Amino acid sequence: MGRKAGKQDLTLMILVMALMIFGLVTLRSASSWNGSVRFSDSGYFFKTQLLAAVLGFAAMIAISRMDYHIFEKYAVAAYILSLILSGLVLLVGDSYNGSKRWLSVGPLSFQPAEFAKPAVILFLARMISRSKKKKKSGFWMLGVLVQVLPIVGLVGTNNLSTAVIILGIAVILVFISNPRYLPFVGLGCAGAAFLAIFLGLESYRLERLAVWRDPESYEKGFQTIQGLYAIGSGGLFGKGLGESVQKLGFVPEAQNDMIFSVICEELGFVGASALILLFLILIWKFMVISTHAPDLFGSLVAAGIMGHIAIQVILNVAVVTNTIPNTGITLPFISYGGTSVLFLLSEMGLALSIGRWQKETAGI
């Protein structure tokens, strides 16, 4: 099957730009009070995010113009680097709000866990596409998943939510590369048992379950309750952009994990639904790119990016609506976080690069 280079995927570009603009506008509103109180600058978080977005767009354009096969050569090195950086976080990492997740280099700081996501996608895509063993075997599936457990363990030590995302990406890539579904039943049972043991090792993890079931009975349920108040008070069309009350110190760190609740309060059900629709179209676009990729490596990379975005959006919305226990997970392109935006846009560059190459019979 031949392949040919095409033009940039304008649909994907427009979707990414729409999400970033939506994110910057809502972040400016959601973070204004915290910025004024903590930095005497209501636009502090917005300016920092804007700088990261500009750098991220530059990286996205640069990567989109490259042949994505170049990244296959450095996939193993990227994975090893992610292990080293995640290990350094445990040794010399910086803490913020009680979580040690950052590494500082001079005046700059970043979260190695965000780099681990694309690194794992590239590593697994390379390994699976080059595997000569029969992918029907349950032992093969288990062997693939075992190879990402080191990074899952390192990241999960202080960032359980990101560890869940990385493991979810691995499961999705193994699932779509395997023609049999029955082995996943066994893996699912093993995963459930592992999760139960993992949660039981630390009392604070079990406490999260208790807070989730009855947030009004626990002090740590304050954030969840205030977030639900924000969602409920927004109604159908919201109070208007910039008119949130809950962002005025009631929802802690409104610019981060709980920004979706502020969006619901200010833009209402209609605005929140529009955002979710954008994400759904973006995920569908990744599926199209994966389907029409000229080789297995490109298909798996696009599918991994799709899985990353889908899992993170689902988990964030589920946490904010108290559908699942609070895991401290950000909303892609929307929540504050320079490292997250930079690597997310880099992943979009990868997807654009894959989209430039298509099967000659695809007709897209």
Automatic annotation (TrEMBL):
Principal location listed in the UniProt entry: membrane
First-level EC class: transferase
Subcellular location: Membrane
GO process annotations (BP): cell division; peptidoglycan biosynthetic process; regulation of cell shape
The keyword Cell division belongs to this UniProt entry's keyword annotation: yes
GO MF term set: lipid-linked peptidoglycan transporter activity; peptidoglycan glycosyltransferase activity
EC number(s) given by UniProt: 2.4.99.28
Function recorded in the entry: Peptidoglycan polymerase that is essential for cell division.
Name of this protein: Probable peptidoglycan glycosyltransferase FtsW
Organism of origin: Candidatus Limivivens intestinipullorum
Upper taxonomic lineage: Bacteria, Bacillati, Bacillota, Clostridia, Lachnospirales
